[in-house]
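Please check the following.

. . .
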Amino acid sequence: MSHPVAMHMSDGLLNAPTSVIFGGVAVIGIAVAMVGARRDLDDRTAPMAGLVAAFVFATQMINFPILPGVSGHLLGGALAAILVGPWVGALCVSIVLVVQALVFADGGLTALGANITNMALIGTAAGYGIALLLRRFATRGRAGLATVAFIAAFCNTVIASLGFVLEFAIGGDAAFSLGGVTGTIVGLHALIGIGEGLITALTVTAVAAARPDLVHLLRGTARPLELRESPARSAS
């Protein structure tokens, strides 16, 4: 049996007041993201957002091994943010988490606010912020974009796990050592981050090779089309 570890908090892991607090944080965060998403969504990007949400949903349902008996899955925050922007990306991941909680009981309903805060808000913001800082490297070619996507996704996973640690410190079971919880959660998610980085890098570069204009991170850059292979090179 493989024990899945990847941020989906279950019911009872946090006390009621903490669950309510982060439920409020999630509602506020989603409301802000909806306002920001109005600037990014148009006839071209709306279908892309739907595809990103569907892809994140599908990949979150697939676990990959990180240690003997322990598996993880994609969080998707950096991936979504790089492709459709931080605001739309946060909404995509939030929708995925809501559907998973309501339909598949993946993540507790009382912990839904905390899960959205960690994966859809903190993870997406962290991943996009790092990708934005490294954007000039992403425009240097496919290898540069893949490297930036990997770093952003890895950091997204680790930073999101720190959100879990914060929530557990506020309203978790005091019988567990916070230091032990921190070491275990962050260590495991650092390993998950490697898989997250690889999936994100492969997906982003595949999209950029076909339609670099649809990669949000590359908008406004001087040379976004250099990521696409030239006809002469592809013919050879």
